[in-house]
Amino acid sequence: MQEMYLLILQGESETLEFKKTITHPARIARTLVSFANTRGGQILVGVQDDGTVCGADPEEEKYSLDIAINTFCDPPVEVIYEEVDMDEGTVLKVIIPESVLKPHLAKVKEDDWRSYIRVKDESVQTSKLVEKSLTLEPATETIEEKVDYQQERILELLRKYRKLTIKDFMHMANLSKQRARRLLVFMVLQGQIRMHDKEKEPFYTLS
């Protein structure tokens, strides 16, 4: 019980979300896939947005979540359920590990499936570029230092120019298109930068 109170005190974040109850399976599916597509996370059902514990009926919530997983997630997201009895009622902890089957898609409406990632405390719809890059192999340990340096270079460029396209980064940071794309997607997933893909040519800004 004490661990649960400490977890709630951390507040909603990239890996934690509160839900009073699960009323819309289609909406919670977006949160589920965003955690699975990013670094994993937890949903505490029976906790209000402000962190107040109100409790929930675990069986009812599991029923709604199972509908979300099996009807509105493709492929279905893996979850682990834990029930924690608190003084105010039972909290259902829904643990979503980072998936090896990413990208997962959430059903928005009939024949309309979209991918989401977790950025800070929000589930954000991805672009086709991010979707494709989620399937790329992670960088090997031997190039981690180089990756860190290149990330810092990208942040420096954005601090100076405010917004840049992938072509800008390729030219200014001397990166191949594949390397630039991998780095930018990784940094979007980490919440360091933000992608804007409504324009003809997507561009990036600092978060």
Automatic annotation (TrEMBL):
InterPro entries named among the record's database cross-references: Schlafen_AlbA_2_dom, Schlafen_AlbA_2_dom_sf
Coiled-coil features, chain-numbered ranges: none
Domain Schlafen AlbA-2: 12-125
The name this protein goes by in its record: Transcriptional regulator
